[in-house]
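Retry 2 of 3 after timeout on previous attempt. Resubmitting structure tokens to design endpoint.
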């Protein structure tokens, strides 16, 4: 798994980078164990001088053969935004895998008989 962390109007030091990497890997480790997965993380401060609820963590999950997943969490603290976005990303990734997973032994919709009235 490759995690790229970028900051927009935010200084990304090594401690924040390792915090983000740890939480992203925890959120996705059971879902994508062996696959080539890329995660782009953008840490953004939209109103630099004003403060308030303007710190956001934007995560994009790129899996070969699947559409890209985008999640965003806005908070007053960057660490809270990262944790919330990682939770959302984990749930969205699990939904993606469940939709694509074929359950053997179950009939396909195309194999079911249609009764006409």
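Retry 2 succeeded. Sequence:
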């Amino acid at each position: 798994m490759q995690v790229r962390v970028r900051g927009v109007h935010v200084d990304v030091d090594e401690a924040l980078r390792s915090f983000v990497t740890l939480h992203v890997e925890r959120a996705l480790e059971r879902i994508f164990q062996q696959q080539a997965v890329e995660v782009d993380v953008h840490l953004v401060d939209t109103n630099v001088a004003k403060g308030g609820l303007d710190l956001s963590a934007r995560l994009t999950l790129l899996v070969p053969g699947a559409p890209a997943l985008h999640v965003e969490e806005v908070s007053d603290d960057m660490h809270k935004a990262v944790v919330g976005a990682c939770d959302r990303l984990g749930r969205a990734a699990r939904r993606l895998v469940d939709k694509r997973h074929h359950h053997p032994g179950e009939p396909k919709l195309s194999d079911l008989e249609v009764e006409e009235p």
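Attempt log closed. The domain at 1-78 is CATH 3.30.160.100 (Double Stranded RNA Binding Domain).
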